[in-house]
Structure prediction request, 735 residues.
Amino acid sequence: MSETTSTRKQKKPLLNGRRALPSNNSNAEENEVPEMEVFGLTPRGFNPKDYLHVVDIHMFKEPYEINKQQHHTDKYYSPKLIVRRGQPFQIQIDFNRPYKPDTDQFWLEYLIGRYPQQNKGTYIPVLVGDELKPGEWGAKITHKENNSIRLSIMSSATCIIGKFRLYVAISSPFGIFRTRRNAETDTYILFNPWCQQDAVFLDDEKEREEYVLNDVGVIFHGDINDIKLRSWSYGQFEEDILDACLFLMDKAELELSGRGNPIKIVRVASAVINSKDDDGVIAGSWDNSYTYGVAPSIWTGSVDILLEYYSSRQPVRYGQCWVFAGVFNTFLRCLGIPARVITNYSSAHDNNANLQLDFYLDEEGKLDTKTTKDSIWNYHCWNEAWMSRPDLPVGFGGWQVVDATPQETSDGMYRCGPTSVQAIKHGHVCFQFDAPFVFAEVNSDIVYSRRERNGAQVIEKIDMTHVGKLIVTKEIGSDGMMDITEEYKFQEGSDEERLALDTAVMYGVKKQITQDTVYYPQTDVDMDFQVQKAILGSDFKVTIAFKNKSQNYYSATAYFSGNIVFYTGVMKSEFKNQTFNVTLAPSSSSTFDVVIKSSEYLGELLDQASFHFFVTARINETGKILAVQKATVLEIPMLHIKTQGETVAGREMFVTVEFTNPLNQTLENVTLRLEGPGVLRTMKKDFRQIPANSTLIWEVKCTPKRPGLRKLIASLNCDALRHVYGELNVQIQKL
Prediction:
């Protein structure tokens, strides 16, 4: 057997006894379509050119032409036609002679994938009729002139999302003639939030502008007592991003026939955005070590990440929750699914959905770090995607939680969602997917308990309000913060909240305090503390306040613990501890200050300048323990961005980034990054050193492409200083 014959045999698709065709799960692969299908024998002298044939096809695919304008796809940097399903679009066909409807017969064929089948929606013959039916495939002639006809084509409102190949087929007495394969006529079909029949229909124009068309957003981080925000460039319209997003579905091996269903798409995407079990887009790292990659804090947007993955097919290193959420948001908006990034402050994590985080204290009331395994994230970011849920009872459509950060496995893969936000609020955790896990993230209790010498476990405190205290997203039309906590949970302590909790327990969420425990809290003494706001590199103080509400004299032994933590609440090291005594007179208050010096923390600090303070106090007269914990974040210096010269589309302009090193040490191996959708592609520059208290100035030239209000986003990164950002809104004028 020759080598070529052997190779041909290897290339034949593998079949099995259960199906006639292999899986059709790649948008990129194609089949060969015959240009001529002959009916039996053709007579001598037969010439196909004697019959009607296509000379040219006009797709009206320029951003200023009718299709992209009407379909809200004019912002995509793509030379191809991009339309939204369930809405008519126009094409023009030029024939070799005038079209005669009485004798000439032609139709359109849209194909996707390598094994097109009509019953799978991957081969779509579109016949020309007299009228278009809403949300169904069809075509009608709207204009005839000389040898040309103008067609209005309606796609199905449930059509597969992806890149289709277009052929024009013409019938003759002797066979069917087709146009040649022409990549210029390829048509991308996307979800359509403007179409009532589409599963992602959103009826508010301002919400569509924000959640589908806005290509820059704001992601909230920090902690609940010091909320910070950073801009993120989603860049869903940038060159090659649409192809990169379609490739992700190929990578996930989602059958093409399932790609009209947003539920299936967001579920597989929540797995493929992370690299945990399928070599997906982003590799996560939470250990402050970023060898062979870059720190998550350096990214300013999704475009570089998606394009790097699309070209290399290797996971991009590294990301953390806001990076996963930012890239996922780009994917969703790019395909036309309304989406937004959510931040949950004090987010419960890895607690087996039992609505309980256990913090164990030793006999002296200090936190026992060996037995305490649960953690509370300062914040956690996920996404919401808007869609109907025909798989659930009426009322549970709308916003759905989807989370690409790898935390727990779901059906054997690291993914989460879609989970109905409405189901979470009402405790209906029986509805797919992953509702118990999301419910626990926003509803868990913190239980402080102590093991006595006789083995009895004493519960010292139950905090029912710490977790999920604030859930936010970006405001529509501005960079402000919108509080959406009430979309996830009823007011703490209300009858409705208790009913939702009881409902969740009824549906199988475990809610129980460990057996053989005693809970008699100290109710007549309150303890709390406040952390002074401080800039990175400065000293600050923590003020602990006690209030004796009784007529009794009390004394207390208090223990203060200051820890450097990852933003996930996992402790790296204790950098300060202090024990002090407090005397509490009847009906009185007293305070105690703990001073934190910069020299105590600077050498240990992690990415987000994040601390966790834990204060416990034993009331000597009763033996009861009070416990309070809080996270705090230091103020990190900003980058300052300025523009010089006129800001006009198509004309050169200058952008300056300035940064002053606030530390009494030299910063080494510093990377600056600058990007702005529609203004400039990502630019990077490395600096070997920035001396202590000195100012760095970086000037770049660029030529903005798109007029309107645009945003420039910059980041600075080095081992000693991360999460340094700056941004500037720029009004780009028309030429």
Observations:
- The first strand starts at residue 36 and ends at 38.
- The chain is about 15% helix and 40% strand.
